[in-house]
């Protein structure tokens, strides 16, 4: 059986604390529920595990697109530097 915490994205402590605070605030603002520290951490871990790969893959695709655009621009710049042949 796989460890459910094995694929959780590791966040710096200060980032995790900020996210936990945001999660508790959002839950309290939009529901009648109060979410404790353990509940918020469980929810954050589940969200990171479920959404993390999708966000990560999209970030990679965005990086690929940016690199392709920059490569095209660089390639155009290199062609512009060519000297005409006689």
Structural commentary:
With 86 residues, the protein is mainly α. It has one domain. Helix content is 73%, strand content 0%. The chain is built from 2 helices and no strands. It is rod-shaped, with a radius of gyration of 22 Å.
The proportion of residues in beta strands is under 5%
Query: How would you describe the shape?
Result: rod-shaped
Number of strands: 0
Q: Radius of gyration, Cα only, in angstroms?
A: 22 Å
The helix-strand sequence is HH
Instruction: Report on the biggest sheet.
Output: none
- Please work out how many helical segments DSSP would assign: 2
Low-confidence stretches: none
Averaged pLDDT? 91
CA distance, first residue to last residue: 71 Å
Coarse structural class? mainly alpha
Percent in helix: over 70%
Count of folded domains: 1
Protein name: DUF2164 domain-containing protein
Organism: Paenibacillus chartarius
InterPro entries: DUF2164 (IPR018680)
């Amino acid at each position: 059986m796989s460890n459910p915490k094995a694929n959780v994205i590791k966040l710096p402590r200060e980032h995790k604390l900020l996210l936990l605070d945001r999660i508790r605030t959002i839950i309290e603002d939009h529901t009648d529920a109060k979410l404790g520290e353990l509940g918020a951490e469980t929810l954050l871990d589940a969200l990171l595990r479920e959404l993390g790969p999708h966000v990560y893959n999209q970030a990679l695709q965005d990086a690929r697109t940016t690199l392709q655009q920059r490569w095209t621009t660089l390639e155009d710049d290199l062609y512009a530097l060519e000297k005409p042949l006689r």
